[in-house]
Amino acid sequence: VPLEEATLQPIPMEEFFSAPSTQYLLPILGEVPSGEPPDPKTCSPREYLEFYIFPVLLPGLAALLHEAEKENCFEGKRTKFIPSDFLTEWLYNNNPKRKDESFTELFSIPFVKDWLKDHPRPPIPLSLLLSEEEASILIQSFWRGYRVRCDSEIQELRQWQKKLWEERHITEVVKKFWTKQEAKGSVQNG
């Protein structure tokens, strides 16, 4: 059968939904339905899902929901919790083929490392990393600093410092100082 014909065949949906809903129970990790496992290459889509996918995926999704609840994802619109990251890490670490291996963090998983080399992530915004208390402290300290800098005496002091820097050529003095320090360092190391 050519590839195009095989991929365009309609999926018999009655195989997915033919059993009564009471038959669908959340499986325990690694627990497969009773009986001999079917050949994964020739079995029906329903058998493949029941024997090879659901016993691992459904407990992972349950763990994902518990973790999302712990991270308060259901309370606000934005959160630092990334469900796909959690599920990837969980599925990798709970893979029955890796049952005797130690826990591996998401960014230490080999295929994740390879993917991130070619597709680097933008940093998580600070607003998602800070707690409400930490954010309020930052905002308050910024506001207090702003109010102090607006004070006329502070403005006068800042103008005086700026003028002093310009008159004494502080920038050149600092450059000369570091040039001397670098020369001393290269003589000691050489």
UniProtKB/TrEMBL annotation:
It comes from the Eukaryota. InterPro entries: IQ_motif_EF-hand-BS, IQCK. It holds the Pfam family IQ. This is IQCK protein. The gene is Iqck.
